[in-house]
Amino acid sequence: MKEKIMNWKKFLTTIGGMWLAYLAYKVTTLILLYTFDGLQSKPYYEFIYFIIVMAITLVILNWTKKFFKQKIIFSPNVVALKKQWSILIVPLFLYGIDTLAILPNTTEHSFYIVMASIASALGAAIFEEVRDRGFGGIGLASSIENSQWKPMFIAIVTSFVFATTHYFNLLMPNAPTFVATNQQVVFTFFLGMTSIVLYMRTGSIFYSILIHFLNNFSFWTSTSDLSQDDGWASMLIFYALIPGLYSIWCLRPKKAETNLKYLPDKQSD
Questions:
Q1: Domain parsing of the chain, residue ranges
Q2: DSSP letters along 141-210, please?
Q3: Lesser CB count within 10 Å: N end or C end of the chain?
Q4: Which GO molecular function terms does the record list (predicted)?
Q5: Distance CA 249, CA 99 (A)
Q6: CA dist 158 to 49, 138, 179, 239, Å?
């Protein structure tokens, strides 16, 4: 009997789980933000946010084991990265250089602000990488028959879900503009594409969490949650074209075996 190309039950479980986890986070935080006026502009909100996303992350880790009989690996796969260290160059340059540049200014900020900044950046990095690259990547890998296009399909679907969730930021009390949100959606799609490459090539979300954290980190201010409108030209070149070409190159069919090495090798029953 011919094997199914797609296990729709697993596919829908994956997409539904990704969205359910996000909506649980967003509904909870929106209730808090609209209940307590001005909470979004208080640094202690970042610690509340961290607790909320970590709680949901624990649920996602449990879902991964329950639905797919897999574990999301956090420990860095140094052996795998050593053989292909160059895959870190583009992500570090694109998403880490600005953070590395501002780190010397740490002493200009209070310890409390530094910790709030870390809580915000790290909470988002862990939650979103576990949800979209870990749960999403494993779930889709368990849903689809192996082929040379499987890695690209997983990357596009998980990145699309990851990016489009950011439209819900328009519901926040201090919401970014629609233009800024559109730019954030484009930006996060290609961030997702580069992140899934790191996850596939190493089997660990350690490196995607690191890149995501570096990208998110900035010292907290009362307007930190407000995305600024940037020029489309520079944004599309540096945060769409470059990571897009990087992702296509890494996920090309010729490298399918390498990209599938650490993912489930067949559909789950």
A1: 8-260
A2: HHHB---TTHHHHHHHHHHHHHHHGGGGGGGSTTPPPHHHHHHHHHHHHHHHHHHHHHHHHHS-SHHHHH
A3: N
A4: metallopeptidase activity
A5: 26
A6: 23, 10, 23, 18
